[in-house]
Amino acid sequence: xxxxxxxxxxxxxxxxxxxxxKDLKIVIDPLYTRLPGDKPHLTVTKDxxxxxxxLLLTHGHLDHSWDFxxxxxxxxxxxxxxxxxxxxxxxxxxxxxxDTSKHHALExxxxxxxxxxxxxxxxxxxxxxxxDFWFIRSMFIRPWVHGKPWAIPAGIRWLTxxxxxxxxxxxxxxxxxxxxxxxxxxxxxxVDELGEIERVNVLAIPYCPANRKWLQQSQxxxxxxxxxxTMVHHFDNFLNPYTLSxxxxxxxxxxxxxxxxxxxxFYFSRFCEKVDLARIAGA
Length: 283
Description:
Blueprint: E1 7-11, E2 17-21, E3 24-28, E4 54-56, H1 62-65, H2 68-75, E5 78-81, H3 83-92, E6 103-105, H4 106-109, E7 114-116, E8 119-126, H5 133-145, H6 152-160, E9 167-174, E10 179-184, E11 202-207, H7 214-225, E12 229-234, H8 250-260, E13 266-268, E14 274-276, H9 277-281
Parallel strand pairs: 3-4, 4-5, 5-6, 10-11, 11-12, 12-13
Antiparallel strand pairs: 1-2, 1-14, 2-3, 7-8, 8-9, 9-10
């Protein structure tokens, strides 16, 4: 493929991707700032990124949006996010001179396409994920187990900020050659508004066992959109020291998902590795 037409992906952990195309950088669900006590796989910080041209959020949970205000203020990108997140951004930085003309509330444009250098992007509203009680319990127990009680206030903030925020998926149509990707930052069974999408080349979903229905909903999305390849991102170490081993045990995930979807093809994202879309789609 001509390098001018290449689309590359770089996964930064959790649901955080960088997509590069025609010298433009698109960032989805950025998460550089981790909770106290964390030992993330990332070696880069939010200050290391050179620029962001487009910044997309799927929803406002802090493991998707914690660094959103900082990155918007620093890079002034075209920002697409739930209305609640944009209002919080303006309230947090009054008089900062933010260019709000570049802020787009997803509730106002859902189902409508916008273009990024030939990439057609359409946001669709989806349902929220169902958080299991073990996850909430562990957020309070594990900091004590690991001798890091000062992490508890950050966990409380995670639970109280944008918890019931509207959630969205993004449908991408890439040029040269034409391929499509449906990107989910969270798992859900509520996808009625995506009825016009029959199938996609790449389905991007998280492995997020905090959702008690993760296996059922993963299977449902794969069977519903019949992708050539399912690209999986998992929630690495973002809540260390809370994170239980099941977050990191991808062998168990692979076995469970293959049992439910034996004919599906999977691509597992790797930390900070730049990968061409053609390689992912051909997995």
